[in-house]
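I'd like us to work through together how a protein chain folds, taking it slowly. To get us started, please write out a protein record for me. Go ahead whenever you are ready, and we will take it from there:
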Amino acid sequence: MKQPAVFVDRDGVLCEDRADYVRSAAEWVWIPGAVEGLAALARAGRRIVVISNQAGVGKGLVTPAALDGIHSLMKAGLAEAGVRLAGVYVCPHTDEMACDCRKPKPGLLLAAARELDIDLAASTFVGDTLRDREAAAAAGTGRFILVLTGQGPRWLAEAQRAGITLLTAPDLRAAAQMILGE
């Protein structure tokens, strides 16, 4: 039986987004409220899936081993707070590689839904860019929340200029409260 999930972008939502990429576990810096938000979702029984573009791998700036180390650190930090992720889905490609998994394309969300038996229409995606929103919409995800961490403020301004109305939250902790307040 399909179940809803909360999809969460990584850089800018869970950890600080760096222009030069998070290249090692030593460069990982949690965004305040991220762990607490995921912990609240986990306590409520929500399935959590990380969905992330990681072009640094495709550009040769981040090795697959380093990416694994970063995600091991992320998972360990979350486990300490009682959070077990249902999955981590990563696109290692650059825009030029024209793959089907790089957001704003929905490939990662569709793969997660297929492999984890997720009801996309009943799910929420929390991200900090319009690429995240476009991927969520293309996959048929029921709701998108733009957090105002990472690149969120820039993309909110862009959306407002384009006349796009977005559901926003200051951070992942507040987004989790919105999700749980349904």
Summary: DSSP finds seven helices and six strands in the chain. The chain has one domain: 5-180. Helices lie at 34-43, 55-58, 64-80, 107-116, 130-139, 152-161, 172-180.
